[in-house]
Amino acid sequence: MGEPQPSEAPQRGAVPPTTRAGRDAAQPSDASRRAAPRGISRRGLLAGAAGAALLLGLGGVARATAGDTVPLRPPGGQGEQRFIAACIHCDRCRGVCPRGVIGTCGIEDGIVNMRTPTLDFHVATAKAYRRGAAHADQEAVLAKPYEALLDAGGSGFCDFCMLCAKNCPTGALAAFDPDRHWIGEARIVPRSCIAFDKLGGCRKCVDYCPFGAISLDEGKRPVVQPEKCNGCGVCENICPSSTYRTFRSGLQRGIEVVVNEQGRPL
Ligand code: SF4
Ligand code: SF4
Ligand code: SF4
After folding, report:
1. Which of 5, 83, 233, 242 keeps 20 to 30 A from 57, CA to CA?
2. Ligand 1 pocket test, candidate residues 101, 173, 230, most atoms within 8 A of CB
3. Distance from residue 234's CA to the centre of ligand 2 (Å)
4. Which atom from ligand 3 is nearest to the alpha carbon of 232?
């Protein structure tokens, strides 16, 4: 496996807002405004308007270029600057992924990210698996839930087969060790998680996490241990909260994998 490289902070293009004091200081005083010839004043006004429009335009371009969030990349694609420089949008990783978890960024993710690969843990076959599991041999499923999910051809999570990296022609997806590196980090969303309801009772993410990264606290609510989590997405994929609670949370599930911006392991 490759040695970890220095971490990179996500780059976000943003035009810093000007302060009220700064704007006030830039205004001419009443006296100088009265003393200025009319022609100069009009030109100044037009120049100011043009400058403001340019700044607004640049701000918009910067936002559109960078996007508001850093996408979750397939394993080995962490380190955003390196990844963006190397990925040629060939789509091979998406084509070979046996779990169908690789999607494609759109314009809403920013121009730089458009058509680059990103992970989607909401693939619909998880629901089909849950329905199937309800009728399957319950003892076998409960004894080894993750293995049963693999055997059933479950999709929408990463099993670290690394076919994507092996087929990447540019090395944008580097070597990755799921015990040392991470795609992202799972976080509980209390307003969506069923276990936070009064009746509670759900522990699906605890049972299905293949890395033992989730436990229950004394109130029987899930807690993620970040040092064990590598962002595989099984928990987000299998979480049933959006099925039972669409009235409250929409598509958001009770647990979701987010980019860990504090440290990037590759
Ligand atoms: S490691 Fe395998 S399962 Fe994970 S994203 Fe790559 S191809 Fe898909
Ligand atoms: S295979 Fe590599 S270069 Fe091609 S889209 Fe995927 S990450 Fe980018
Ligand atoms: S993403 Fe979820 S299932 Fe995967 S290791 Fe982290 S907590 Fe476990």
Report:
1. 83
2. 101
3. 23
4. 4
Question: Can you list the positions of beta strands (E) in the chain?
Answer: 102-104, 117-119, 185-188, 214-216, 222-224, 255-258
Nearest CA to ligand 2 atom 3: 87
Q: Which of 241, 128, 130 is nearest to 188 (CA)?
A: 241
Atom of ligand 2 nearest to the CA of 102: 6
pLDDT reading at 24 higher than 80: no
Q: What are the pLDDT digits (tens) for 3-21? A: 434 333 333 233 333 333 3
Mean pLDDT for the stretch of residues 81-107: 96
In the predicted structure, residue 93 carries a pLDDT above the cut 60: yes
Return d(Cα 183, Cα 231) in angstroms, integer: 5
Q: What is the pLDDT of residue 17?
A: 32
Nearest bound ligand to CA 102? 1
Q: Residues near ligand 3 with C-beta < 6 Å?
A: 186, 209, 211, 213-214, 224, 229-235, 257
Closest CA to 145 of 82, 257, 234: 234
| pLDDT tens digit sequence for 128-168 | 666 666 666 777 778 898 998 898 888 999 999 999 999 99
- Atom of ligand 1 lying closest to residue 232 CA: 4
CA nearest 205: which of 184, 229, 177? Answer: 229
For ligand 1, the distance from its centroid to the CA atom of residue 90, given in whole angstroms, is: 16
**Per-residue confidence at 65, pLDDT binned at 50, 70, 90?**
low
